[in-house]
Amino acid sequence: MIGGTFRFDGTRRDFFAQFGLGLGGAALMHLLNADAASASPEKANPFKGILDRPHHPPKAKRIIYLFMAGGPSQLDLFDHKPKLNELNGQDLPESVRMGQRVTGMTAHQATLPMAGSIFKFAKNGKSEATVSELMPWTAKAVDDLCFVKSVHTEHINHDPAITFFQTGHQLAGRPSMGSWLSYGLGSANENLPAFVVLISKDRIDQPLYARLWGNGFLPSTHQGVQFRSGGAPVLYLDNPPGISGEGRKLALDRLAELQQLQADDIGDPEVSNRIAQYEMAFRMQTSVPDVIDVSREPKETIELYGEDARKPGTFAANCLLARRLAERDVRFIQLYHPGWDHHGGLPGGIRRQCLDVDRACYGLLTDLKRRGMLDDTLVVWGGEFGRTNYSQGKLTATDYGRDHHPRCFTVWLAGGGIKSGMTHGATDEFGYNVARDPVSVHDLQATILHLLGIDHEKLTYKHQGRYYRLTDVHGEVVKAVLK
After folding, report:
1. How is residue 331 annotated by DSSP?
2. What is the CA radius of gyration of the chain?
3. Mean pLDDT for each 10-residue chunk of the chain (483 residues)?
4. What's the CA gap between 98 and 476, in Å, rounded?
5. 0.70 exceeded by pTM
6. 397 class by beta-carbon count within 10 Å (0-12 exposed, 13-18 middle, 19+ buried)
């Protein structure tokens, strides 16, 4: 639970009158760490969404978002550019770059030598989607995928770019996408959070901050809950030493009585939200061990995801866990897989990353499909930006690096109302600019919300005198990719 700072706007006399519980009240407030600034009137059930029903019939019930943190190279995975191989080593023409900014990591290079991919590409499936040899398992699933090759973003560095993708704004403090969905639609399982986060434990080579799945200014019941591998999957979920389950429940009941007095006195709904979180944690003591126990999964299912599925905390194991969470109607499941930031040594680095994710993604899609869940589960794969068509640092016949590139990159989607076996948008022959059907980050966010039955312009929250939404003041649903 992420606390905030308590703010009281009354007089000193009001403070002592309203917090007349003395040391007990102080202890309660310390325990709850109530954030009055983030509170808003809620219905009796804090885990119920603000919407009585979706704005329109949804195509998807849940989302599994596979976020490749660091920025995968679209030019070495999905966006094949033979022109780059023809011009390999030549300087990027100014007519292509058009003065567009580059990062400080390549701004002072004497040249920007274009780098064709050293990997082979082939057309796959009935859709003839082009996929690199690095992704042989994904290539088998292309007829279930929709590739969007014209995604672009406003940000050229990791932190603002990831924050923008997750919250709709480059500055920290806004609610994350999963929190918006929880706020709008609520939880479909009273024993599990609406929003769960999983991070590949063996690829932590760049920071991923908890604010990326934070609730921002939304009530705290809507923040994401991180499940960890090994030991306690959720921190502080287990009973303290010497405390029985019955004893903890009695303590929570007494705490609920105190908070009701407090809520009746000062009308702060965030107190009720925090107590609801304690009660959810109590219920999760039973539900979480059940969901993470894969011992009863058939051997054939484990093998579908690959051998790494037996190793808790790997991307493959997290994909299997994501399916189990989806079965239990968790609304938003976010997987982070860092390690895609290949400024140098890209061929070796991207091989490693693809070995991590390729088979597991295929396994997840296949597993969902055979269980009849892909039709109402939206799966999204992509990073915060793409990589440049020129080499960062020295270009050789077998090695090169690629810098950050926000101008164009590829995201794929599957299931949940998305057209399958198609490609939307295109980049120019140099792989540097969008050539057709641009899709902004806000467009993608608007489309995701639409598939869950939400009009992105209507799901709003008033904060500090202004109405906010995930897509800020932008965003158009990409209707061409919808069934």
Report:
1. S
2. 24
3. 41 40 36 38 61 95 97 98 98 94 92 98 98 98 98 96 97 96 92 94 80 94 89 74 79 78 74 71 80 92 96 96 97 97 97 97 98 98 98 96 98 98 98 98 98 97 96 96 97
4. 27
5. yes
6. exposed
Q: What are phi and psi of 280, to 5 degrees?
A: -60, -45
Write out the two tokens for 406.
């926000």
Q: Domain-by-domain residue ranges, the chain? A: 53-240+295-481
Q: Which two tokens stand for residue 116?
A: 């064709």
Pair of tokens at residue 194: 């609406």
Number of other CB atoms surrounding residue 344 within 10 Å: 15
Amino acid code (one letter) for 360: A
d(CA 167, CA 442): 10
What is the identity of the amino acid at 262? Q
Greatest Cα pair distance, the chain, in angstroms, is: 78
Task: Give the burial class of 470: count Cβ atoms within 10 A of its Cβ; 0-12 exposed, 13-18 middle, 19 or more buried.
Answer: buried
With a CB cutoff of 8 Å and minimum separation 6, the contacts of 200 are: 313, 314, 315, 318, 335, 336, 337, 338, 339, 356
Q: Would you state the structure tokens that stand for residue 39, as one six-digit string?
A: 């509170």
Amino acid at 188: A
DSSP-based three-state secondary structure for 462: strand
Q: Tokens 């999964």 appear where?
A: 297
Is residue 412 within 8 A of residue 382, CB to CB? The reply is yes
Q: Of 64, 25, 63, 43, which is closest to residue 219 (Cα–Cα)?
A: 43
Residue type, 169: H
Residues 6+ apart with CB under 8 A from 205: 338, 339, 341
Question: How does DSSP assign 170-181, residue by residue?
Answer: SSTTSPPHHHHH
CA-CA distance, 9 to 341, in Å (whole number)? 46
Quote the CA–CA distance of 419 and 228 in Å, as a whole number.
Answer: 34
Read off the amino acid at residue 433. N
State the DSSP H helix or E strand holding residue 406, giving kind and residue range, or none if neither. Answer: none
CATH top-level class of 53-240+295-481:
alpha beta
Asked if 39 contacts 308 with a C-beta cutoff of 8 angstroms, the reply is no
Q: What is the DSSP letter of 254?
A: H
* Placement of tokens 């965003």 in the chain: 475
